[in-house]
Amino acid sequence: MFPEEQEAIEGAEVVEAEEEDDFFLDVDVLQNHGINAADIKKLKTAGICTLKGIQMATKKKLCAIKGLSEAKVDKVKEACCKLLNSGFVTALEFSDKRRCVFHISTGSQELDKLMGGGLESMAITEAFGEFRTGKTQLSHTLCVTAQLPGEGGYTGGKVIFIDTENTFRPDRLRPIADRFNLDQSAMLDNVLYARAYTSEHQYELMDMVAAKLHEEAGVFKLLIVDSIMALFRVDFSGRGELADRQQKLAQMLSRLQKISEEYNVAVFLTNQMTADPGAALSFQADPKKPVGGHILAHASTTRISLRKGRGEVRIAKIYDSPDLPESEASFAITSGGVTDAKE
Fold first, then answer.
1. Cis ω on the peptide bond leading into residue 237 (within 30° of 0)?
2. Cα 295 to the chain's mean position, in Å?
3. 274: which strand partners?
4. pLDDT for 302-320, tens place per residue?
5. Is the pTM above the cut of 0.70?
6. C-alpha span between 301 and 191 (Å, rounded)
7. CA of 199: how far to CAs of 17, 133, 292, in Å?
8. Phi and psi for 106 in degrees, rounded to 5?
9. What does the alpha-carbon distance between residue 160 and residue 208 come to, in Å, rounded to a whole number?
10. Which residues of 34-113 form beta strands (DSSP E)?
């Protein structure tokens, strides 16, 4: 090999490594900036493992970590600002940064087209609908399709599944794996599962998720929460606890958004519906609406509404998105998971 070629390859590798590093700047680098190892360990225990994580945490949150004084927190923040560009960038530079965004196929080409190529990383995609509209089936299919290489150089990766309603069935994934010619055991081995029993437990799992994503940097590609609101509806009852519930929910969603950006993963949430008692007065065609109110509506990047069609057919509609037009697509649920509906 010629020296020029060797240099070019090494140069490309350095650029690649820089891009990767740009994503996962470990808190350990703070040791070179006068922060001691014990304090770095405290940050990691609190689920803050990257510089981006420090940037995304408030001083109040950092001061609440046992053993970190205000002076130490200021020092950490200062060192972090030096290492990261926390100011403005041009839209062109930001456009380059967004090149690492990938899309995960849903198993249905029509649905992928509707979603602009599939489930987007560094964003929260929420699917809501009544029972039997295919939310959990879509979650199960995504567990498998996330492991398949896709368009735009997407290599596939592992999945984390947080189950709040006890609806996850590993055996349901087997026929879906067969459809895509995957080894069942290997595929199941790539799905990390946790059952959450209370909304507090659900929030605590976020720290474990951050630790896991940091431990195996770049390996996990998808985080599924099925469903996001179920436990909040149970733990907080009545109007009196509504403000408290929404505040806790906002913290949870903010954490999810930050995790998706910090580790470049796609986040998929399913959500339930509620009957709207005021709808009859305003003559709305559909008296049902997704749970979670404005807090959840603003936190989700893309919202998809699901409804039942004839037989196995389900209809998905873009309800809200920053870059996708409002339109509909139909898909079918088969033993092999979500697929295109036959005309």
1. no
2. 17
3. 289
4. 999 999 998 889 999 999 9
5. yes
6. 24
7. 38, 24, 13
8. -95, -10
9. 11
10. 103-104
